[in-house]
Amino acid sequence: MKALLIDGLNLVRRIYAAVPQAESGDREAHLQRAVSASVSSLERALRFHQPTHAVVVFETPAPTWRHQLYPDYKKNRKPMPGPLRDGIPALKDAFLEAGVESLERPGYEADDIIATIAGKIALGGGFSTILSTDRHYCQLLGEHIEVYDHFGQRPLDRDLIRDRLGIEPRHLPFFLALTGDSSKSIPGIVGVGPRTAARLVAEFGDLESLLEAAEGMTGRIGAKIMHGAESARTALSLFRFKTDIALGINLNQLRHTSRR
Predict the structure, then answer these.
(1) What is the pTM of this model?
(2) d(Cα 156, Cα 146) in Å, to the nearest integer?
(3) What are the structural domains, with CATH classification, of the chain?
């Protein structure tokens, strides 16, 4: 099995923002252009990756388990434009016409669903390409999983994470638990920047080992870590993906069948 797992909102929000507005200001015309461009982009990805199975994963508007754990999660994120939100059903229909099913589950984000599917495929010896510009997916990188930036036309691989952050991809949740992520309104540990976080990740390997050692650290860093311990634990949970969601589907339902 060779699967293409597409982060739906990552794809369509970028395309919607890039498609020029109609001169008349007609929102419906703008949406139709965005739908057409999204389908063309999807078909280009299918031609390039040649998957046997494919799915576009969306998210419902309802709060997720992350909001329950941390109510301020993504509190500063701009909402989806109304016309695009209302046009999601039309996008799903158009993707289905191209032979690709859409999937979403209340209470979960696309990353959790994609991580669950990719994990199941890996257990069966298959291979998954995750189509997204979101580097958080790189924590899943391995022999059976890759992440591909469709717009940049490049893989988001181990070398990129090591060059940009100075860590191994599997350590991304630990790294981000220290630095936080303003795009998701997750603070991490105040005063710990990327360079310090990379050094601590390399030295300790996991968050609990770092927290155990913090009391004996000299200088201000130990105090910062101890003060931010619970914040870091919460952040670590938020940055990790759920990989055991009961999706209620058979992977054979995701087989790609060209309909054009």
Answers:
(1) 0.94
(2) 8
(3) 2-159+242-254 (3.40.50.1010), 168-239 (1.10.150.20)
